[in-house]
Write a structure and sequence with these properties.
Length: 156
Amino acid sequence: MFSYTFYQWLLFFYIYCFIGWIIESTINSAEQKKFVNRGFLRIPFIPLYGFGAITMLFSSLWVRDNPTLVFICGALSSTLLEYTTGIIMESIFKMKYWDYSDIKFNINGRICLLSTFFWGFLTLFLMYQLHAFVEKIVLGFSEKSLIITLTAISLV
C-alpha cells in the first residue's frame, strides 16, 4: 500500500507538469525546427500533465501489484479526466482542443476507445517505470526540504 503526504503529492504534480512541458515542447520544437515553448504559463509547466499523472497514480496505486488492474484503473480514470477536461475547456475557451469524431467508438469526439487503451498503457509505463524513479527522488526529501522546494516553485 502507498502513503504519501500532501507535500509529496504536490511535488509529484509539479514534476509531472514539468515533464509534460518537456515532452510537448520537444515534440513541437522538432516539428517546427525551432524552439517552441508549449503551454500557456510563463513557467515550464503544463498542468494537464500533472493532473493526468496524479489521476493515474491516485486511481491505480492501491492495485500497484496487479498490472491488469493498474491498466483498467488508469484507463478509466484518465478517460474520465479527458472527457471532463474537454467539456470544461470547450465551455471556457469556446473551442475544441482535440476531436476524436473521425475515430470509431468515440463519445462526442471528446474520448474514444483507442485513447482509452493509450491511457491504460501510459499508466503502466508511469507506474512501473517513470514513477518508480520519481518516487525515489521525492521520498528522499526531508519534510523541511520538501516545504522549501515547494514554496520556491509555488512562488515562481
